[in-house]
């Protein structure tokens, strides 16, 4: 039952996010078309057969709800799609192709601009409200990692990356991603605060970020991991290995086989790596010090009990959270931060597309509707703030993708009109038809690749 409810929540979260973004994108086209004097025939929420409609006066726009409630479309008076021979000269003044090139550019650009504007509004609202996030306090870097070699240690708090101040773990990771993708290949200075001792500057060498894989965690790649709380037990399954060994809620695991356990991550790693093997736990229970033996049960690592890798489990819950901070700004600071975030994300997206074209980044990073739906479900279960942040990120991606110079997308039309501005005459109709066919073929290929990558991830 829980699986069915989870699937329905994922489906609704995806439909709500993607459908809303497409509708607002089309609404941007619609509003600017009306401002520019182009006649709008229909604005539909959804696709397919119209199930309800209302015609407004005096402009005569048909506002419709259609049978497939995912996205929508706007239909303008356009001689390329409709027979306009029977229309009067007065009506033809409101036909799309008869408008000057700058009006056509404004109408087409309005869709992606709406997506960017929506992302700015959502992010600014989140920054003003305040978002609780883990601080940028790090765990002990593993030996031989760039972070360890640079001199960082457990408990250090990263307060700036490359000269840019950061307040949270997500901001720190974002600045690392920017540094890894800007193409300059420079060393990255990290400003680190050691509580009670002041601030220090360490340097990550450029080589540590050269082989950045966008499908991986850039922070983990250089040896940076979030500082986790010590392993303190919550609920203990009496029938599981932990319960049978005598573990109780509130117990703190101090050491395993005589080796100190510093945090939850280290504890989980040791247990998972020891299926069927005896472990000796040093336990703190209030003022008591206990020593208990436990044998983790062997369990398949795959989701749903499937998988070829076996890990150890003791069936206990762990309490505690990383150090959390509330990141918030005033109205002007939040707006500036939101605009910067939208710009940086757009630039990063374009850079990643460029690196895919040059072969520096694998095409396996192209994601499709299945992955987007999965993220939609996950963020909706975390909370409203996470879901709205997800919608903002998808809105930015939708805006960027629509601006790509591919025929049938907004960017393709903007390319035609830019050539018209430069040459003084429209692109030949025959050239446009051929380009449209090529554009459709390219989009179908990209969608097939995205779905294939999604299925591979699931498997």
TrEMBL record:
GO terms for molecular function: metal ion binding; metalloendopeptidase activity. The chain crosses the membrane at residues 105-127, 387-409, 434-456. It is a multi-pass membrane protein. Its cofactor is Zn(2+). Keywords: Hydrolase, Membrane, Metal-binding, Metalloprotease, Protease, Transmembrane, Transmembrane helix, Zinc. It is found in: Membrane. InterPro entries: PDZ, PDZ_6, PDZ_sf, Pept_M50_Zn, Peptidase_M50. Its main location: membrane. Residues 222-298 form the PDZ domain. GO terms for biological process: proteolysis. Its EC number is 3.4.24.-. Coiled coil: none annotated. It is an enzyme of class 3 (hydrolase). GO terms for cellular component: membrane. Belongs to the peptidase M50B family. This is Zinc metalloprotease. It comes from Pseudoduganella buxea.
